[in-house]
Amino acid sequence: MPRYARGFDIEQALEHLQRKDRRLATWIRRLGPLPAPEGWRRSFDPVDALARAILFQQLSGKAASTIVGRVEAAIGSKRLHADTLGLIDDTALRACGVSGNKALALRDLARREAGGELPSLRQMSVMGHEDIINALVPVRGIGRWTVEMMLMFRLGRPDILPIDDLGIRKGAQRVDGAEVMLTPKALAERGERWGPYRTYASLYLWRIADFSTDPKLKTNRSQD
């Protein structure tokens, strides 16, 4: 059974993309090499990461960080898991600023963890990315995009293309000089030439979507 490393050789990915796609290669030369996401090198707890993803949904980073801090104080731990989330009731969660829907999502996450339904980091290391997606999207409040961000920025899987992400679609539109954005289905077909390094192509597409007159313009979609 193959074991998946966290991260991949970005120099090899860079060379592959430049060879396979001349239009993207033009942008790559303009922007230069992109660094590997810092999350590849950091310790990673999937359940805690999913809980934080739930709390951060549809909020500014500052507002979400404030709410997370309140929850951590209420449970007396920086580890969001079934055992620690079980220390706080829904009324207390609401007092921390957690919406009713997010509280339900956290409860569902905790229930699934306690029931052994969620794969551990060790188990994920031998699972294909579609298997990981299928294992996690049944959790309330967790969609495919959220898992794709985990796969890209924390697990370092090399071949992820979030075809429903508007930034990715806008970046592809600019690469091709098209009048309209590709549909997700068309983008998936367009991205076949980037495999097996669609993750690295995605990093460029986000950067291209945000590109201005400054080629060093940065974007921040990491799962820090």
| Alpha-carbon Rg, integer | 19 Å
Q: Which of globular, elongated, flat, extended, rod-shaped describes the shape?
A: elongated
What gap, in angstroms, lies between the N and C termini? Answer: 30 Å
Number of strands: 0
Number of helices: 13
What is the percentage of strand-forming residues?
under 5%
Which segments are poorly predicted (pLDDT under 50) over 5 or more consecutive residues?
Answer: 213-220
| Helical coverage, percent range | 55-70%
Q: Secondary-structure element sequence? A: HHHHHHHHHHHHH
Please summarize the sheet with the most strands. Answer: none
Residue-averaged pLDDT, rounded?
93
The SS-based structural class is mainly alpha
Commentary on this structure:
By secondary structure, this protein is mostly helical. 55% of the residues lie in helices and 0% in strands. It has 13 helices and no strands. The longest helix has 15 residues, at 61-75. The protein is elongated and about 55 Å long. It starts with 9 loop residues before the first helix and ends in a 15-residue tail after the last helix. The relative contact order is 0.16. Mean pLDDT is 93; it is low at 213-220.
